[in-house]
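In response to the reviewer comment on reproducibility (Comment 2.3), we provide here a single inverse folding case reported in full, input and output, so that an independent group could reproduce the run without further information from us. The structure tokens appear first.
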């Protein structure tokens, strides 16, 4: 395994076969631990995400900062897939002993920091990290300490955010049923398992297949703002598929399907799908 140590990063033998990009993110992860894990130690093992989630997000930061936008986006997509498939639904700050070094602590922890960055902005996030280090240097810290500094620096009430993503179990499930007719699209967006209402960016793609097989796409963005939202709109093009949150701004398990008619509500039984659309 990899391990940070004084003045160096200890690397496993198999890194001789790693690509430069893999080495780059690997070293960033381990170097991050000099601050998050070493300079600030854990108050309890329940706070392990303060080490591993922060070090995982360092991988994203170095890719993004180096201009590798697609690689950075792919990393978030991989995390989302891994967390969705992960077996643990425990709160981020209460892992079972067997899951302390699992997907939640690393990848969900990193994704939560990314969502926090989206919510409070770059300036507030990086000032929060600097304040956190300055205040707890050579001491232990717990999740509540980081939360308090984040709210202090950002000036925002982040109670609901932390309750959902750190104290809450699992991740939200979002199911979208939609139908199109006469240029009109109707959709029912059902958000389940969330402690508060997410505002979800939704992109609709128009797929045009020409005789040359060339394809093109147009987008329209929507932001449902309730746990149950019914949307009616005329996009001006024939909808072939939905692309959900392409910028990876929210950690959720999302599905979209075309139906013959919309259910009356999220509690109503679903209609027979007319088609299953790629996301």
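Designed residues, in position order:
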């Amino acid at each position: 395994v990899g391990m940070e140590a004084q003045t160096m990063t200890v690397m496993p033998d198999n890194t001789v076969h790693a690509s430069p990009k893999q080495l780059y993110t690997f070293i960033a992860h381990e170097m991050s631990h000099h601050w998050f894990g070493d300079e600030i130690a854990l108050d309890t093992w329940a706070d392990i995400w303060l080490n591993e989630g922060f070090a995982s997000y360092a991988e994203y930061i170095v890719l993004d900062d180096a201009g590798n936008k697609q690689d950075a986006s792919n990393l978030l997509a991989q995390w989302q897939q891994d967390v969705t498939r992960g077996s643990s639904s425990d709160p981020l700050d209460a892992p079972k002993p067997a899951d302390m070094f699992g997907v939640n602590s690393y990848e969900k922890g990193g994704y939560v920091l990314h969502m926090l960055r989206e919510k409070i902005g770059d300036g507030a996030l990086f000032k929060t990290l600097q304040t956190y280090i300055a205040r707890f240097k050579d001491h232990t810290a717990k999740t509540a300490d980081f939360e308090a500094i984040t709210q202090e620096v950002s000036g925002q009430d982040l109670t609901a955010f932390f309750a959902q993503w750190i104290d809450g179990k699992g991740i939200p499930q979002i199911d979208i049923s939609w139908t199109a007719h006469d240029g009109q699209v109707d959709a029912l967006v059902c958000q389940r398992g969330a402690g508060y209402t997410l505002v979800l960016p939704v992109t609709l793609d128009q797929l045009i297949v020409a005789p040359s097989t060339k394809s093109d796409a147009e987008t329209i963005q929507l932001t449902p703002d309730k746990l149950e939202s019914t949307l009616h709109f005329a996009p001006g093009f024939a909808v072939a598929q939905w692309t959900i949150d392409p910028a990876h701004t929210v950690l959720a398990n999302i599905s979209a399907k075309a139906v013959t008619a919309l259910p009356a509500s999220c509690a109503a039984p679903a209609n027979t799908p007319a088609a299953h659309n790629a996301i």
